[in-house]
Specification:
- By secondary structure, this protein is an alpha/beta fold.
- It is built from 24 helices and 14 strands.
């Protein structure tokens, strides 16, 4: 720790990384000048966790719960993570999707304590200097956004900062990446959201978004500043517009340790869901055909990873790509169209134009449909019924976030398919009963992938992130789904045991990193034990 390691008294109570609150012992209170600054009663961390859960239970609004937890993070970081890790399934929806979407929309009106780094394009030419203001000397993970495509909610400008903050909280809570090595960042290049520009409370730059060469030069300078200050840092790109997301990833993926969670993380969690779904349907992976609702970076990222996984099983490259077909706002992505982006072209199909999604389902006969459109209700009854007519066990993955943007609900998918759909969604749905059977809908949440990926990178100090690492992660996630879970339709490990699941995945990915020579530390004899030894667990220091 850099600046507050010798803090005492009042300053100690205002250092979130060192503060224990009422858990400071009587001896510590005397030694550190805390006497009189706290109530005399001494609490254990377990009692503090219980007290926080009682506070949360008294609140009925999820945004208020989000704010309570955010305030706790700003006041007592150890307790914050102890609370999250005590009930990950219950609290993840509060600190991340779906609640974080509302928090980002209302960011300018609920802003409290500053957290992370805000790098405006007006500081171009001085980013090294500005980044130096961060109080930590060693940063291993940066999650960065420019706020243009926040979840399915669009351009939220600096309000998008809620996404990097929430993502990094899950790096720690779900896989044990030590929080002191994490830095949330927003690149403020303006906003095209006129409502924000007209809002007197808006906290970002009041200008339209910078595009083109000037934008990319700013990103280049950011990369150079990070590499200078934090040479072991991995950069995760989050919620960029499709054209920037793909361009940035392609520009840097072979040069630095970096990945895009919307492209590669989403792809891996979808692939994990497919691997587990095939344990239910008892079908071969290489025989599957997927139709995507949405043709952006997320869709092409999933299609690319599925294709690469099929190629690893011996399928010809062209044949593998042909098993992934896109359908966007202008219809089926066919080769004759002249409005396609370069990243879509590998997945064009030689077919007559199709303007209705249900007609594309009937014509192409996919075994699975994957929704990443951010447009709700497009997996309607005719679509689900068509999938059920074609397939004994149709795969239906409406992955768009938040819940309000989901292509269909769990109940709709199960009911319209007669209970035969293999379902997973981007946001959580509660268990339900259809036709006398109880189903537990799976949430295809990237939380199964990116925290584990982060832990593997942290432990190994990996120099690169590759697509193959995400395939390894996907298989490791699917391996942990029990037969009991599959019988209830649950195709992901229970979120209640996300920490153990993540460490298992991290161990598999770390082994691959060592095998490929990407690690910057010596290979240990026991990789799983090595990874576990690096994991943060919330406990007050003596």
């Amino acid at each position: 720790m850099k600046k507050d390691s010798l803090a005492t008294g009042h300053d100690l109570l205002h250092s979130p990384r060192l503060n224990k609150g009422t858990a400071f012992s009587e001896a510590e209170r005397r030694a550190y000048g805390l006497e009189g600054l706290l109530p005399p009663g001494v609490s254990t961390i377990e009692l503090q966790v219980e007290r926080t859960h009682a506070e949360l239970a008294r609140l009925t609004d999820d945004l208020q719960k989000y704010l309570l937890l955010s305030d706790l993070q700003a006041r007592n970081e150890t307790l914050y993570y102890a609370v999250l890790m005590s009930d990950p399934a219950g609290l993840m929806p509060l600190v991340y999707t779906p609640t974080v979407g509302e928090a980002c929309q209302r960011f300018d009106r609920i802003f409290r304590a500053a957290r992370g780094m805000y790098l405006p394009i007006t500081a171009r030419g001085r980013l090294r200097e500005v980044l130096h203001n961060w109080p930590q000397d060693d940063v291993r993970f940066i999650v960065v956004t420019d706020g243009e495509r926040i979840l399915g909610l669009g351009d939220l400008g600096v309000g998008g900062m809620g996404i990097p903050i929430g993502k990094l909280a899950l790096y720690t809570a779900c896989a044990g990446v030590p929080p002191q090595y994490c830095l949330p960042v927003i690149l403020d290049v303006g906003t095209n959201n006129q409502g924000l520009l007209d809002d007197p409370f808006y906290l970002g730059l009041r200008q339209n978004r910078i595009r083109g060469e000037e934008y990319m030069a700013f990103v280049d300078e950011f990369i150079e500043a990070v590499q200078t200050h934090y040479p072991k840092c991995c950069i995760q790109w989050e919620d960029f517009a499709n054209f920037n997301a793909v361009a940035i990833l392609n520009r840097y993926r072979d040069k630095i340790c970096t990945y895009n969670d919307d492209i590669q993380g989403t792809a891996a969690v979808a692939l994990a869901g497919i691997f587990a779904a095939l344990r239910i349907s008892d079908r071969k992976f290489s025989d599957q055909r997927f139709l995507f609702l949405g043709g952006g970076a997320a869709a092409t990222g999933i299609a690319r990873l599925i294709s690469e996984a099929m190629m690893l099983e011996g399928v010809d490259a062209a044949a593998a790509r042909a098993r992934c077909v896109l359908f966007d706002i202008n219809g089926l992505v066919v080769a004759s169209r002249n409005d396609l982006a370069d990243f879509q072209r590998p997945f064009t199909v030689d077919h007559a134009p199709v303007s209705a999604f249900v007609d594309a389902v009937k014509a192409l006969r996919p075994t699975g449909i994957i929704g990443v459109s951010t447009v709700p209700k497009l997996f309607d009854r005719p679509v689900i019924e068509a999938m059920a007519e074609i397939n004994e066990r149709p795969i239906v993955f409406p992955y768009s976030n938040p819940t309000s943007r989901s292509e269909c609900t769990a109940e709709e998918a199960y009911r319209w398919s007669g209970g035969r759909a293999i379902f997973a969604s981007g946001s959580p749905y509660p268990p339900l009963e259809v036709a006398g059977r109880t189903f537990v809908p799976g949430q295809g949440n990237n939380v199964y992938i990116f925290p584990a990926m982060g832990m593997a990178i942290f432990a190994t100090e990996a120099a690169r992130v590759t697509d193959e690492m995400f395939i390894v992660a996907a298989k490791a996630v699917a391996e942990q789904v029990s037969e009991e879970s599959l019988a209830k339709g649950l195709i992901y490990p229970p979120q209640s045991r996300i920490f153990e699941a993540s460490l298992y995945v991290a161990g598999k990915v770390a082994a691959y990193i060592f095998d490929q020579g990407f690690a910057r530390v010596p290979r240990p004899a026991d990789i799983d034990a090595f990874v576990r030894a690096h994991a943060y667990r919330p406990a007050y220091s003596a």
